[in-house]
Amino acid sequence: MVKRPLASKKSSRRSFLVGGAALGAAAATLPAPAIAQGKRTLKMVTTWPKNLPGLGMAAEHVAKRITEATDGQLTVKVYAAGELVGAFDVFDAVSSGNADMYHGAEYYFQGKSPAFNFFSGVPFGLTSNEMNAWIYYGGGQELWDELSAKFKLKPFLCANTGVQMGGWFNKEINSTEDFKGLKIRMPGLGGEVLRRLGASVVSIPGGEIYTSLQQGVIDATEWVGPWNDMIFGFYKIAKYYYWPGFHEPGSALALSMNLDVWESLTKSQKVIVQSACAAQNDMTLAEFNANNSSALATLVDKHKVELRRFSDEILTTIGEMSGKVMHEMAQADDITRRIYESYLSSRRDSIRWSHLAEETFWEARRLPFSYD
Ligand code: CA
User: Fold this and answer.
1) Ligand 1 centre distance from Cα of residue 105 (Å)
2) Does residue 59 contact residue 276 with C-beta atoms inside 8 Å?
3) Which of 7, 146, 176, 306 has a 20 to 30 Å separation from 266 between CA atoms?
4) Angstrom distance (rounded) from CA 66 to CA 316
5) Cα(186) to centroid of ligand 1, in Å?
6) How many angstroms is it from 27 CA to the middle of ligand 1?
7) 220-221 and 252-258: which strand pairing?
8) Distance from the CA of 200 to the center of ligand 1, in angstroms?
9) From the CA of 248, how far away is ligand 1's center (Å)?
10) pLDDT tens for residues 83-135?
11) Residue 37: how many CB atoms within 10 A of its CB?
């Protein structure tokens, strides 16, 4: 069941978006937490607005789980984007040790290494199930550890959105020509692909998207999917809602801990952190799946949003360009190339099995037999 959308009224949306900053100012005036009786308070900075359903709450839930499972020996305090540092500054904050861990999307940090894109999601890449297979059992975690260690970080999967939507537009996209000159918010390699097709692409944090679209700083945007997008209120200022989200087929979110902090944990604390992240990876995906369908119905039936599907011609062109962009990017350095090759190998395996499994089953389930 969908909770009452926080963005249903302008005033509530405003308080939702600025509330974090207000709380942050208050929190900053409190005395620094004391380290007593072996108890430690760890700072988690995030790329999300305060208490944002889905992603922001994933950070809150995993922090609470670690705190409670360690009986407060590790007390994790969550800071929303802008409270301690800006959304896109969390990587540097944790890498330098100014904060202890971040929760966010790895593609925000592609400026540090293009290889980070693979650990959130790439266009026409792995779905959430397939991503788990690669990270947990396909060599992905070891490569991610090696990449992150260069920045003194230790990463974990810690949420997934499932397949995202293609985004919000105020004009129809009938061919790839329609991307030319379009100012669109799209992070990661999806954004790079659209830039190659002539779009003017920006990557801005979630909390700033609505105002940017409203003020015409951007013409179009993607965010996540029906549930999260309805909360942000994009239906009020954009007419067409496109699918599928070719650019993010199963976006993973990460909890990444400062490597020195990670290595200072006891064995049981490490197991708790690892298990709490794995649990959150499942729970957030389930939460998105549980809420997206009814949110989509509300968007279409109540808010009169017009759904549009990208044509196969558009998707084919974007798919070709995606492969080309990734191949070029992979030449950056040795580790990026090894991560790219591992990812592609896992993608090939997944495609072979998914075709016989999910893909064929979903088609079978939609055959016109009577069931309920
Ligand atoms: Ca997205």
Assistant:
1) 9
2) no
3) 146
4) 44
5) 7
6) 29
7) unpaired
8) 17
9) 6
10) 999 999 999 999 999 999 999 999 999 999 999 999 999 999 999 999 999 99
11) 7
- Whole-angstrom CA distances from 141 to 47, 147, 262, 341 are 22, 10, 15, 14
Give how far Cα 3 sits from Cα of 156, 290, 291, 295, 324, Å: 28, 11, 9, 10, 41
The pLDDT assigned to 37 comes to 65
Res. 22: pLDDT tops 60 = no
Instruction: Calculate how far, in angstroms, residue 320's C-alpha sits from the geometric centre of ligand 1.
Output: 20
- Do 40-161+250-289 and 167-248+303-360 come out as alike in CATH topology? yes
Q: The whole model's pTM is what? A: 0.89
Domain boundaries, the chain: 40-161+250-289, 167-248+303-360
- Interval between CA 204 and ligand 1 midpoint (Å): 11
How many angstroms is it from 362 CA to the middle of ligand 1?
A: 24
Which class is 40-161+250-289 in CATH?
Answer: alpha beta
Nearest CA to 106 out of 206, 221, 256, 246 is that of 256
Distance from Cα 197 to the centre of ligand 1, integer Å: 19
Distance 260 CA to ligand 1 centre (A): 31
How far, CA to CA in Å, does 217 sit from each of 106, 200, 212, 221, 241?
24, 11, 5, 11, 19
CB 164 within 8 A of CB 247: yes
Number of residues that make up the chain: 372
**Cα 46 to ligand 1 centre (Å):** 16
Expressed in angstroms and rounded, the spacing between residue 371 Cα and the centre of ligand 1 is 35
User: In 3D, which of 261, 205, 253 has the Cα closest to residue 93?
Assistant: 261
Instruction: Please tell me the distance from the alpha carbon of residue 264 to that of residue 254, in angstroms, as a whole number.
Output: 20
Q: For domain 167-248+303-360, say whether CATH 3.40.190.10 is its number.
A: yes
Best CA proximity match to 187, nearest among 87, 94, 110, 292: 110
